[in-house]
Amino acid sequence: MRDAKTSNAWLSRFGWLVFIWAVSVVATAVVAVLFRLIMGLAGLTL
User: Fold this and answer.
1) Considering just the CA atoms, what is the radius of gyration of the chain in Å?
2) Longest Cα separation, the chain
3) Contact partners, residue 39, CB within 8 Å, separation at least 6
4) Are 5 and 13 in contact (CB under 8 A)?
5) Transmembrane helix: present as a keyword of the record (predicted)?
């Protein structure tokens, strides 16, 4: 019983780690798109 509880806790922590990583990647992508949009509106294009 104790091993199952420990395994569950580990999986829960790993799940939160993956969730937080994914949210940070999405947030970084959103900021990058906003910067591109702002720079495009300012005439700073490649």
Assistant:
1) 19
2) 63
3) 45
4) no
5) yes
Q: What is the pLDDT of residue 26?
A: 98
Q: What is the pLDDT of residue 2?
A: 63
pLDDT in tens, the chain (46 residues): 567 778 789 999 999 999 999 999 999 999 999 999 999 999 987 7
CA distances from 42 to 26, 29, 33, 37 (A): 24, 20, 14, 9
What residues contact residue 45 under an 8 Å CB cut-off, 6+ apart?
A: 39
What's the per-residue H, E or C state across the chain?
CHHHHHHHHHHHHHHHHHHHHHHHHHHHHHHHHHHHHHHHHCCCCC
